[in-house]
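ARCHIVE CARD
CATEGORY: sequence design from structure
SOURCE FIELD: tokenized fold
FIELD CONTENT:
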């Protein structure tokens, strides 16, 4: 092991932050680290909105389903998949561009996620805490209007960054042997391994909540697969210019 690997393995989501600003220039350095992430064909299909106005943070906290740490963190960023900049640059270079391809949606989403994870690692290396906010996709239209996002740009998730004001345990992950397959997709051991992981998560939830949460990994997944999750996203993405072609 080395410090980088140990840092990556120590990640926790932080939802309580101290009232303390980041050092001058730190955020810009984190963003530069994010820009060093891999990007498909050098497209760099992302933009980040730094939200500083308290009233905008208040609205975003509500739109994300009531997440007060959006208001409390030192920095709140909205990571956006952005195909506007690249397609317009190609157009100015003389290309007859085609918009709305599914691959463009994938490239922009993947680029954004890779870039954000580099930002997270950089922040955590400075003893800061983070929390991803996927809840912005609960109301992507309103979020886009608030942030004045143009067509061919959409909010993928938010990110809280700040100094932790609590010390949660690292949440267990599935065993490596469950997700690391040799040569072919072999799921013959998955059921037994998931059952063992359910036991691990059951103990984790009991310990974290002082016995108040009696659940498992599989039980926590049920809401994701018993209802249509954010069905508005397809229409929203099409309106934004990210069609399925």
């Amino acid at each position: 092991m080395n410090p980088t690997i140990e840092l990556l393995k120590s990640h926790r989501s932080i939802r309580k932050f101290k009232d303390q600003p980041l050092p001058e220039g730190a955020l810009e350095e984190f963003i530069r680290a994010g820009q060093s992430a891999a990007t498909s064909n050098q497209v760099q299909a992302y933009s980040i909105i730094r939200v500083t106005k308290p009233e905008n943070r208040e609205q975003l906290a509500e739109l994300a389903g009531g997440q007060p740490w959006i208001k409390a963190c030192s920095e709140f960023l909205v990571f956006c998949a952005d195909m506007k900049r690249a397609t317009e640059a190609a157009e100015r270079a003389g290309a007859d561009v085609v918009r709305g391809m599914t691959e463009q949606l994938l490239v922009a989403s993947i680029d954004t996620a890779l870039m954000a994870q580099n930002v997270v690692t950089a922040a955590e290396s400075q003893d800061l805490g983070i929390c991803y906010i996927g809840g912005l996709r609960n109301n992507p239209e309103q979020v886009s209007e608030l942030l004045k996002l143009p067509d061919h740009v959409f909010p993928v998730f938010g990110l809280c960054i700040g100094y932790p004001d609590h010390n949660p345990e690292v949440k267990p992950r599935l065993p490596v042997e469950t997700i690391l397959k040799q040569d072919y997709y072999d799921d013959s051991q998955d059921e037994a391994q998931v059952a063992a992981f359910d036991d691990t998560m059951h103990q984790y939830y009991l310990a974290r909540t002082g016995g108040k949460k009696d659940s498992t990994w599989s039980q926590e997944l049920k809401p994701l697969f018993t209802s249509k999750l954010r069905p508005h996203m397809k229409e929203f993405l099409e309106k934004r210019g990210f069609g399925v072609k």
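CARD ANNOTATION: The chain has a mean pLDDT of 97. Residues 206 and 214 are 6 Å apart (CA to CA).
SHELF: design records, drawer C
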